Structures are given as C-alpha cells and as structure tokens.
Amino acid sequence: MIRILSRYAILFSLTLLSLCALSFSLIYLFPAEPVTTLTGITPQNLMQHEALMNQYHLNNSIIVQFADYLSELFAGNWGVSLISGQPLSEEIMLALPATIELSACAMFIVIVVGIPLGCYSGLRAYSTTDFTINSISVTAYSVPVFWLAVLFILTFSLQFGWLPLSGRINLLFDIPPKTGFLMIDILLADNVDRAAAFSDALLHLILPVLSIACISTASMIRITRRSIIDVLNKPFIIAARSKGLSSKQIFFRHVLRNALLPILPLMAMQITTLITNAMIVETLFSWPGIGNWLIQAIYQRDYSALRMGMLAVSTLVVMITIAIDLFNRLIDPSREKYESVTI
Amino acid sequence: MSRFSLYDDEAHPSPWQHTWRAFKSSHIALVGLAVLLLFVFFAFFAPLVAPYNPTYQNTEALLIPPSWAPNGSIAHLFGTDALGRDLFSRIMYGCRVTFGTSLLVVIIAMLVGVTIGTIAGMLSGVRSSVVNHLLDALMAIPTLLIAIIIVGILGSGLVNSMWAITLALIPQFVHHTRSFVRGEMKKDYIQSSTLDGASNLQLFYYSILPNMIEMLVVQGTLALSIAVIDISALGFLNLGAQAPLPELGAILATGLDAGYLAPWNIAIPGVSIFLMVLSITIVGDGLRSALRKRVNR
Amino acid sequence: MPLLDIKNLTLEIDTGTQVIKALDKINLTVNSGEIRALVGESGSGKSLIVQAISGATPPNWSITADRMSWNGNNLLSMSEQKRRQILRKDIGVVFQHAIASLDPSVTLGEQLEESLPDQLIEGSWFWQRAQSRRKVVINTVHKVGIKDHEQYLRAYPHQIPTDIGQKLMLAMALISQPKMLIADDPTRGMETTTKVQVLKLLSRLNQTRSLGILFVSHDLLAIASMSHSMTVLYCGQTVESGKMKHIRKRPLHPYTKALMDSAPSFSKDLPPKSQLPTLAGTIPTLQHLPIGCRLGPRCPRAQRACVNVPAVRKIHDHSYSCHFPLHRDKV
C-alpha cells in the first residue's frame, strides 16, 4: 500500500516537473521577448530590460533559470497579465473554481444519469428499449458542443425567455468571492437573500451544464452499455446462474462490479473531453471560467497569461487523472484487464 | 447433363469478406456509409460540383432564405449569408476543408503514433512502465489547451490547428498500439516466428500488422470523429481556419452575427457537422460490431 | 423414482445460416445414490447437456424433450423461480474451467458463502448467521481436501493454482448439500494424485450421503473404477447405456468397444511393438453431421441400413441403438 502511494507520488511529481519544464520552455517559444512572457511587463527602455533580466536571472544558464522559475512558482509569484496588469495568481484563482464548478455539476449529471441508463440498456441488449436508448445516445454524442449551446441559447433564452443567457448570477446580487465557488460563497455571504441568490445561480447554471452534460452522458451510456454486454457473456455469469442465484443478486453483486471496474480508466478521458467542452461553452455563455479567460488571452496575445493558464489547467487535469488511476489501482484486485476496453 | 454441382462447394469467405457481410447486414450502418461516402465525394470533388465560388460576394443577394422558405430562390439552394455568399457552395467547400483536414490529421497521427507505439512495445525495457504512466498522464491534457498553445506559438490558421490536433491524437494511438503490441509479443505465434529467425521488422510487418489492422480501423474512426469536432471547434473559436476560408465551424461563427434574422446560417452548417460526425460514428459502430461478430462466430 | 430422467432430448442451435441438431434424442437417467458416467469424445456434446439441464441457455437454442424431469417435476414447463430453487438446493454443478467460472472481482470466501442457501444456517441473529456461514464454509473446504483455508479464502480467483480452484468449485457445489452433483470433467488436467483424491472424495460422498453424480468425462480409467452405470455419447446421440459391469464385459455397440479397447491397460500382455487398436477417422464437425447413425462413416460394421437412425433396443437394462450390434453377426 505504501509502495503504491509512493509510486504514484513519484509519478505525480515527475509529471508536474515535466509540465513546469514545458511551461518554462514557452518563455522562449512564444513570439515575444522572454522577459515579457515571464513577467508580463513590457520593458520600456534598455535599462528596465537589463534590470528585469538580472532580477529574473535570465542571463544565467538554463538550469539556474529553471530552478529560479520553479522557486518563483512555489512562492506564488506568477507574474502579471500583459493586458490587464493584474497579478495572474488572483485572476487564475478566481477563474479556475468557476470552471471546476461547471465541470463538477456536469460530471455529476453524467454519472447519475449515464451509468444507470447504460446499465438498463445493457441488460436489455438488442431489444427495442436498448435500440432507442442507443440511437439517442449516438445522436447526442455526434452533436458539436458549440452548436448545441447556440441552439439552447436561441430556444431557451431568446425564444422562450425561460433561462438566462450569460454569467453566473444576476448582476444585482453582490456576492463577495471568498472561495470562488459560487454556491459556497452564497452560503457564506451574509447580507443577501440566500434563497433568491441560490435559485438565481442555479438558473444560470442549467443551460451551460446541460450543453456539456448531453454529450458526455451519451458517451458514458455507450461505454457502460458495452461493458455490461461484455460481462454478461462471460462464463462466470453462466456459472452463477447455474448456482441458482436470482437475476437481481447476479446483477448487483457480480455484473455491476465487473462492468464498472474496467471503465474507470476511460473516465479519465471523459473528464478531459468534459473540460475541453466546458472551456468552449464558457465563451458562449460568458461564464467567467478559465476557458473563457484563456481564449480571451489568446485573442489578445497575452503571453504571460497563456503560460500560467496552461500550467494551471494541465496541473488540474493531471491531478484528476492520477487520482482516478490511483483509485482504480487501490480498489481493483486484478490489474491485468486494463488494456482492452472499447466503446 | 444437368449443370448442378454434385458436391456442394464450400464457400470460405476471406476475413474481409466476412466483415463486409456482417457490416452489410445492418441497414443503419449502410445508410451511415452512404452519407459518409457523400462527404468523401464533397471532399474530393467540391470545386467541380459547387454552383458558385464560395468567396464570391453578391451584394444584391444578401441574406436570402433557403429554397424551401417562401422568399427563397432555387438559385441559392441553402440561401446566402450576410455578405451575399451562396451557402450551399460554402458548405460544400466547408465539408471539403473540414473533412479533408480531419482525414489528413488522422492519417498522420496514426502513422506517427503506430511507429512510436510499436517501437515502445517491442523493445520494452524496465523503464517502460514509467514511460507508460508518463504518457498516460500527458495524454490527459485537453485538446483545446494544446491548440491554444500552438496557436500562441505559431499564430492562428488552419495548418497550425492541424498540427495541434495531430499532437493531441498521437498519444492515443501510441497508447493503444503499445498495449496491443505488448500483448501480442507474449503470444506463441510470435515466439515461433522469432525462433524461426524473424527480425523485429519482419515480425511487425508479417505477424503483428495484419492483426493490428482491425484495432487501427476502430481507433481510426474514433479519432476521425474527434478530429472533425475539434477542427470545427477551433474554426468556430477563430483559432483555426481564418475567414474567408470556408470551414464549417468558421461558417457557423460568422453566421452567428446575423443569427437572429437568418437562422439558416446557424442551422445548416451545424447540421452538416452533425451529419458528418454521426455518419462517422455509425460506420465506426457498424465496423466494430461486424468485427466482433466475426471473432465470436 | 429416478432423480433425473431425460428422454428424447433434442437441442437445436440456430446459427443464423442453418439449424444444427447438436443433440439428437438423448436418453439419460440418474437414480438416487448412483454414479452415472457420461462418456464421449470432445465435440460429442457433453457440455451442452450440462448447460441444457442447468437452464443457462442462450436464446438461439431450442430444447425439446419427451420427458425431462427432476424427481417427477417437469423441468421444461416449470417456472423460472422454481427451477432456480431446484438448482440452488438440489443440484450442484461443477464446471470445467474453474478459474473462468469464478467472479474475478470477489474473494473466494465470499463466493463460497454466497452459494449457501439460507435454510441450512442456524442462528437467528445477524452475527450468528454470519459466523455459522463461515463455519460451514470452512468445514466444506476441509472436506474437499484443502488444508489451510485462511490463505485461499481470502484470495482472488486469479491468485490460486488450478487444482485448488477445481477443489473449491467442488466445495461450492457441495456446500448446499445437493441431492445430485453434475460434474463436467472435474479432473481434467489434474495430476494423478489429486485426481485420485477427488475421485475418492466423490465416491465417499456417494456412499455416505447417497449423492447421485452425473460424471461427464472422457477419462475412462477414472470412470471405470468408480461409476455404477455409464452412458456413451457420440456426436450428440446416445449409443449405449447400461450398468458398468455389463458394458465392460460385453459392449454391444462398435463405438463402445472401440472406446474400451483404446484405453491403454498396461496389465494386459500385448505383444511388444504391436499397434494399439483405434477407430479410424475423427468426430464430424457440427456443420457436416452425417444423416442416420452418426458413427456411419467411421464404423467398421456399417452397411446400407445405417443411413436411418437406429431405434433404441433394450436387453435387461442395457440399452443400445445400433443396427448391427456386436452380439449379432455382421450381415
């Protein structure tokens, strides 16, 4: 157990190190002065340029520079944005929880709706119900996420006017951002009508989450269905039936465990796609998340923001992936059946 | 003498014929294949078939509704956009760009990924497990992020977005190829070929590759659907194809401006992307179940 | 009254292109306290019978029989619920590949405890029942010959060696104290010492508890020593059936004789370097079944009449289906 944990800790640090190295190399790869990309300050004259170079050790060898870079990162000194001049750490710390909130809600729906529907569909494989569910999920899987979001906006916001169009909450509510997670901040704020604020935030959450969740749920249904069909054909299910166990017992005790364990590695890929879709949808709904922030940054060629943002998002994603992998390793008794899982 | 054969000749179809027969038995897969072939046709022959030049702006024909609406005309089958460009020709060229670039991206990613994966799988060493974990962890970086970085370094444009998506698809191919090759190397038929004196290259070409083709086809269709969605997403965000290059996502983005007045500018490009991905997914599903039926017979 | 009574069971498999008669009018009877051996080459359909009895059949199989009853109750017309009850309490099944028949994600101890029906545990409180369950499991595991149960009960199926797996499958089948055991080639691939242990255990169970056993195998040496009666199966047809000593002394069907001859018995003084007696040819595949008596193409005594399926004839409990049995001269 300790060995597994230490292995994963080493893996995590190695991956983090390579991500930092990548972000460090961006300083030289971006088509701007290395000083600018690193600090976010455009030097006005030669003296300032020299001063900045010395301050950030950009004249020394690469190793020293990298070591310095790492120490700055851990100190929280992430530089400032080229365009807005605000410290990057603040901006990222505000934007990241918004995206996490969006993705977490979508993931919740995916798991709560996708897995039961997939199981239901798999148990009645090749029947009419299964055919219907499968067709719907194939259709939902093929819809481009940005088109779906636009359609939702056009129908539900503009045509019917039921749901709000942009932002996280109505501008009339002034919630001080303590944690960045709006739901928690609402509960922590004490000068607002909490119920009204909560329901308003919820309404703002519905459309973006629905756009993301539709596609990922469809994918989850397909994966679960395939996994259940594969397990139902295995010899030990036939043996269990010969033992005289009832269908319900067989399902909950044997089928479910053996079907869900192989799809955990696939969940990591799902989360990646989910976060990509979340980032795209944020631009359409003006949701103040990290995706919107990064895309604005690339439109304005804000190189220092890009560098830091890339590091932040990839660290988040890698953390989640390694956590899922670790979880899988701990609860799965036999690790051999990892290699071949299909949709 | 009658012409019937006294002994019933046994028909032993080859594996590909088997797969094709199983594929044919599903009607939906055939319909998907037909739609996919239509897109392939557009990809190759759009310049010959399109009625108008996609960049030709006819200032007298702005925002004409499609031909099935009351004020539409048959001259512009799908109507025109805000700059007077015929939407039908734009969509055809757009399919050409989107589908063609996706195919190219998938082929390049497959070639590079399979090479790296095979080398990693055949010459496996002690450190291969660490490399495997590292690769899996890096595989998890979102496509959009990679695209943003590459656009930041190289600038926006269709070719740069192609590089981004190729980079994003390679780790998947590497992962699957590597695990497949490692699994096959343990099998007895590879060992017997090795004992016969086959070199690694011969092993790969004659023994492993024929068995790998099925897995590659399945992964390829998956990657193709991901590539289409990603390229159109990047075009939509203006990070990929730049105007006036007709690309389905970019067409959708320009259509958004006049969206409320002219909803066909949003609906039709979206439907084309949807149909493209749907046909790829259906054909991929059909192939997968055909291959499964062949193996489980 | 026989425990298991099967008469004229036909199993048809619909492969989509053709309908194959995998089992053609099988007759099988197992009485209480009797060990019946079901012998046949691989490919003759022995495992299909086991699957048909246990009811775990895929949807493209269709089973018809004149009579298929357990203790007088018709198995075919019974409800799903009742059939499951019977399987749980009265019949135990041991499958061929032990490791594949076990759930890979559950420990063996749990799987054993699962096979125990509730009626056999005493105690009315939760923890009492759990304790007595565990006790029964440990007892049964000891009885099959596994000494240190701790290690194996905590292990997962892929961590145990195959012969321990086989013994555990046997324990799983016996734990519900069934009246009949269906053993589908339980000693396949075992070393002789383990094989002897298992066979001794089975015959002891048969004597003490009058447990009926349907022993499906093609290991003639094992079967000859302990079974009371035998049914010979060739390519989905029963060719001969009767008491073991009668068949050994005087086999009536050419196939049975060939089977008996082919089992090497090193006590017979064969002349050195003489050819071992065999039956030419191989068992036909399911796609190319001969019409009539399926041994026709291979049988040394085959004549024109063999294109019709021979009727079942009986001589004092010894039934055979052949047009030209061995006690009559070849005409």
Outline the fold blueprint.
The complex is a heterotrimer of chains A (343), B (297) and C (331).
Chain A: H1 2-29, H2 34-39, H3 46-55, H4 62-75, H5 88-123, H6 128-142, H7 145-159, H8 182-188, H9 194-232, H10 235-243, H11 247-285, H12 290-299, H13 303-331
Helix pairs in contact in A: 1-13, 5-6, 5-9, 5-11, 6-9, 7-9, 7-11, 8-9, 9-11, 11-12, 11-13, 12-13
Chain B: H1 15-24, H2 27-49, H3 87-122, H4 128-139, H5 143-154, H6 158-185, H7 188-196, H8 200-236, H9 248-257, H10 264-296
Chain C: E1 4-14, E2 19-30, E3 35-39, H1 46-54, E4 61-64, E5 67-70, E6 73-74, H2 80-89, E7 91-94, H3 108-114, H4 126-143, H5 149-153, H6 162-174, E8 180-184, H7 192-209, E9 212-217, H8 220-226, E10 229-234, E11 237-243, H9 244-249, H10 254-262, E12 313-315, E13 318-320
Parallel strand pairs in C: 3-9, 3-10, 7-8, 8-9
Antiparallel strand pairs in C: 1-2, 1-4, 1-5, 5-6, 10-11, 11-13, 12-13
Helix pairs in contact in C: 4-6
Largest interface: A-B, 53 and 50 residues
Cα-atom radius of gyration of chain A:
24 Å
Largest sheet of chain B: none
User: Secondary-structure element order of chain A, as H and E?
Assistant: HHHHHHHHHHHHH
Which structural class is indicated by helix and strand composition of chain B? mainly alpha
Radius of gyration of CA atoms of chain B, rounded to a whole number: 24 Å
How many domains comprise the coordinates of chain B? 1
Low-confidence stretches of chain A: 336-343
Task: Quickly count the helices of chain A.
Answer: 13
Q: What shape does the CA trace of chain B take?
A: globular
Quaternary state of the chains: heterotrimer
Distance between the ends of chain A: 32 Å
Membrane topology (chain B): Multi-pass membrane protein
InterPro entries (chain B): BP-dependent_transpt_permease, MetI-like, MetI-like_sf, OppC_N
Family (chain B): Belongs to the binding-protein-dependent transport system permease family. OppBC subfamily.
Pfam family, one (chain B): BPD_transp_1
